[in-house]
Amino acid sequence: MSPPPANLALRTCLAGFLLLALPGRGQPEPRTAEPEALLAAFVYNFCLFTNWPREAAGPDSIFVIAEAGPPLDTFAALARRKLGERPVRVVHLASGEALPEPCHALVIHGLPPGQRDALLAQAAQRPVLTLSPDPGFRQAGGIVEFHLSNQRMRFRISLANMARARLRIESRLLKLAEPPPAGEEEL
């Protein structure tokens, strides 16, 4: 008996995460993708496996990802994708620009702490999935913080920040997250 299509999609995505995140066993090290391409792929997959409250769906069916920081071509390419049946729109935020309405995900990279914190304060008022490769992002109020380790993309999730945003990340994806570093409490 074959699994339902949604379960198959989740299994395929999780297998992709494992291939990107876990070291090979006895195999030569594969060539890794550029960090920006990995970041875009991880952001897309986090969006696929995050559940928003009903009111966050918005009046139209467009899924909005806002990018704050130097523009990355890999994020513009996400606009050609769909999340389920919803087309994706990527909005690049200029310095000081407010979050668009609606906004489902916010990717922050390479911003000074003051600008980052201002955007996180706006996002804290709504159910927005916040993601970043910048160190200290979770401690500043972000939900998902990515980092490279041994040329592999890894991530940590703040469960407290996720709960404040009223979001639910699929448990199978949560299990792939790294625990907080020694001496750092779970946020």
Helix/strand order: HHEEHEEEHEEEHEH
Instruction: Calculate the mean pLDDT score and round it.
Output: 82
Share in β-strands = 15-25%
Please tally the β strands and state the result. 9
In CATH, the architecture is 3-Layer(aba) Sandwich
The CATH topology corresponds to Aspartate Aminotransferase, domain 2
Describe the structure.
The protein has 187 residues and is an alpha/beta fold. Helices cover 31% and strands 21% of the residues. The strands form two sheets. Strands 3-4-2-5-6-7-8 form a seven-stranded mixed β-sheet, with helices on both faces. Strand 7 and strand 8 (152-157) form a beta hairpin. The N and C termini lie far apart (41 Å). The model is unreliable at 1-32 (pLDDT under 50).
Provide the descriptors you would attach to this structure in a database record.
two-stranded antiparallel ribbon, seven-stranded mixed sheet, 187 residues, single chain, Aspartate Aminotransferase, domain 2, alpha/beta
Blueprint (SSEs and pairs):
Layout: H1 5-21, H2 35-48, E1 50-51, E2 63-68, H3 73-78, E3 82-83, E4 86-93, E5 105-108, H4 113-123, E6 129-132, E7 144-149, E8 152-157, H5 159-164, E9 168-169, H6 171-174
Parallel strand pairs: 2-4, 2-5, 5-6, 6-7
Antiparallel strand pairs: 1-9, 3-4, 7-8
